[in-house]
Design a protein that fits this description.
The complex is a heterodimer of chains A (465) and B (195). With 465 residues, chain A is α/β, with parallel strands linked by helices. In chain A, 31% of the residues lie in helices and 16% in strands. Classes of the chains: A alpha/beta (465), B alpha/beta (195).
Chain lengths: 465, 195
């Protein structure tokens, strides 16, 4: 029987099957953070159940942390309490925690891959829907609710019905200035926000094969925005090279044995999928969103479509955009480069490369938020911080920040923010805020111009990338 | 978990598609460390204006509507995995959410909290929403055992799908932890075999 990448990893983790019901799936790694774990710890404590495999859990503080003055006490009492609760819970249960200020602290989906915690062929979960990010390594990784966090605490397993399979293939040559973020925004704009619901998605084709691990993570990260619980890309030499030598990666002979196994994981020739979509790389251009869900995206040079649907109209009304208009030249006062989608070193290199020798527009408040302490250090060591500062930008400290605005990084009421994050829902970046999703290149260009510009015209800079 | 068998109630219509979990419970209310109090902030930014005044145009604030059934547009619960969305809906008093489509994670979270997601056809949803808006006193019966949803005193009725295992859990008030703990020996055997 021909198997897909997903089948192979899933089948290797099935502990048991309930007749006419779900399967018991073993979870290799469980990542936790301060927001979706406290109620799960309480649940176990109330029921007198111990944590089954604390050594397979890794914790970080990210959603609720400040991105300035991290060495000082947290001002927000509720945030402070939630972070303290995480420390207490981890200590009590012998769980490794990379708390605020630790050299490995960072957004859960940035720090785990860069530490080599994420490896091909694993099953990974976290109480966060963007856990799909780790699928970039050929890992089954998906977001879970807090009740499921408690289930994994208690048994290192979950009860799940195997999802259907979906493959999205993109082949051809990407145009200059088209980044992984544009590829995934394009796919979601074509397929809509619920086409992947009930499915696990595999991304295939030369476009993904030629992408860096950072790019693959950006793509898999947004799988949930088309409804898919997770996305995967077959592990290959790029994957092995990325994992090799990282803190928690297998070493020496163990690593070679792992590689031999990882090489068996890619989808068998002739394996079938429940649904398949094909796209041409040449048709993709720098993308931008105009509405209040990630499926409402257009090429930056296109006009907003005209639709008669009530939800569509409500969305445009919220954004204060007109159907049929272009977004080029729209004044923008806020730019956010960060989030688990685009806060890795490659994203900051792209931004710095564009910004170098230019100046931030005076009307723009720009937040540059690295995904982890390690990314922050790399930005400084590579001299990118100097480029940002010379152009009038300030680098902040790592965290989820303005992606969901749980901390103080909130976009004010009515303001537009060109953001490299993943969701443009109403109020996502602060009450009344209006989010426009884009790549780090489009975000950097917006910050320099103070308005949305057609980056495809800025050929000179694009050739540098 | 509370048991669920049948429910007869009026319903609140929410004629909006793609209701995401950021709308159900905005992120700024996720700082609590227990499950209590989220009901007060369900749909916070739709129920209240930024100055704190009540948005009288929003369905939950319309005195004509009441009940423990929420009837919403397509693709309900998309977005974040926050279970706080399920806690906010149950905290407000909802026991059933009806839509033509549910996002995966939300659906699982709802089932794990005794909140029944009832997926109906697009046509049924349209008729149901119209009926409630025209006759807000309309009562709806949801029968989990029979897997039916029907509008009282009309011919409007439909069956709905639910995973057999989850149905048993809802009817008996069991949760997955109970089941998984009973499988501990099998899990340990799996670990030993896959060392």
């Amino acid at each position: 029987m021909k198997k897909t990448l997903f089948d192979k990893v899933w089948d290797a983790h099935v502990v048991d099957t309930i007749e006419d019901g779900p399967q018991v799936l073993y979870i290799d790694k469980h990542l936790i953070h301060e927001v979706t774990s406290p109620q799960a710890f309480n649940e176990l404590e109330d029921r007198g159940i111990p944590i089954f495999r604390p050594q397979q859990i890794v914790a970080t503080a990210d959603h609720n942390t400040p991105t300035q003055n991290q060495d000082q006490p947290i001002k927000d009492e509720l945030s402070k309490k939630q972070l303290e609760q995480l420390s207490v819970n981890c200590k009590k249960n012998n769980i490794t925690l990379y708390q605020l200020g630790h050299k490995y602290n960072g957004i859960v989906h940035v720090m785990a891959p860069e530490l080599g915690i994420t490896q091909p062929g694993m099953t990974m979960v976290c109480g966060d829907s963007h856990t799909s990010t780790h699928g970039a390594f050929g890992t089954i990784a998906f977001g879970i609710g807090t009740s499921q966090v408690a289930q994994v605490f208690a048994s290192q397993c979950l009860l799940l019905t195997k999802p259907k399979s979906l493959r999205v293939s993109v082949n051809g040559k990407l145009k200059n200035g088209v980044l992984p973020k544009d590829v995934i925004l394009y796919i979601i704009s074509k397929l809509g926000t619920n086409s992947g619901t009930g499915y696990f998605c595999e991304y295939a084709g030369n476009v993904f094969e030629e992408m860096s691990m950072e790019g693959r993570m950006t793509v898999c990260n947004m799988s949930i925005e088309m409804g898919a619980r997770g996305g995967m890309i077959a592990p290959d030499q790029t994957t092995f090279d990325y994992v090799k030598g990282r803190e928690f990666a297998p070493k020496g002979e163990e690593f070679n044995k792992k590689i031999a196994y990882w090489k068996t994981l890619p989808t068998d020739e002739g394996a079938t999928f429940d649904k398949e979509y094909f796209f041409d790389a040449e048709d993709i251009e720098p993308m931008i969103t105009y509405g209040t869900n990630p499926g409402m995206g257009i090429k930056i040079t296109e006009n907003i479509p005209v639709e008669e649907n009530a939800s569509f109209k409500k969305s445009l009304e919220y954004m204060n955009f007109e159907a049929g208009e272009s977004l080029i030249n729209k004044p923008i006062n806020y730019v956010f480069i960060g989030s688990c989608t685009n806060s890795r070193i490659e994203d900051f290199r792209i931004a710095a490369n564009f910004i170098k020798g230019k100046q931030k527009a005076s009307n723009v408040t720009a937040w540059l938020v690295p995904g982890s302490k390690q990314v922050e250090t790399q930005i400084i060591e590579e001299g990118l911080q100097d480029i940002f500062e010379a152009a009038g930008f300030t680098l902040r400290q790592p965290g989820c920040s303005a992606c969901l605005a749980m901390n103080d990084d909130k976009i004010p009421q009515g303001e537009y923010c060109v953001s490299t994050s993943n969701r443009n829902f109403e109020g996502r970046q602060g009450q009344g805020s209006r989010t426009i999703l884009a790549s780090p290149l489009v975000a950097a260009a917006t910050a320099v111009a103070g308005k949305i510009v057609d980056v495809t015209k800025e050929i000179k800079e694009l050739e540098l990338i | 978990m509370e048991k669920f068998t049948t429910l007869n109630s009026r319903a609140i219509p929410l004629q909006i598609e793609n209701v995401d979990t950021d709308q159900i419970i905005p992120a700024r209310f996720l700082k609590a460390t227990d499950k209590k109090g989220f009901g007060d902030n369900v749909f916070r930014d739709w129920r209240y204006h930024k100055d704190g005044s009540v948005n009288t145009e929003f369905a939950l604030n319309n005195p004509n509507y009441s009940g423990t059934i929420l009837v919403a547009g397509d693709n309900f619960g998309c977005g974040s995995s926050r279970e706080h969305a399920a806690w906010a809906l149950t905290g407000y008093g909802f026991k059933v959410v009806v839509s033509s489509f549910f996002a995966d994670i939300f659906k699982g979270n709802a089932l794990n909290n005794g909140l029944l997601p009832v997926q109906v056809s697009t046509d049924f949803l349209k008729e149901l929403l119209n009926t409630i808006e025209n006759y807000p006193e309309t009562k709806i019966t949801v029968n989990l055992e029979a897997q039916t949803i029907s509008v009282d005193n009309t011919n409007l009725s439909e069956t709905f799908e639910i995973d057999a295992y989850k149905k048993t859990c809802m009817i008996n008030g069991y949760d997955d932890i109970d089941y998984l703990l009973s499988k501990k020996a099998t899990i340990e055997a799996f670990e030993n075999a896959n060392g």
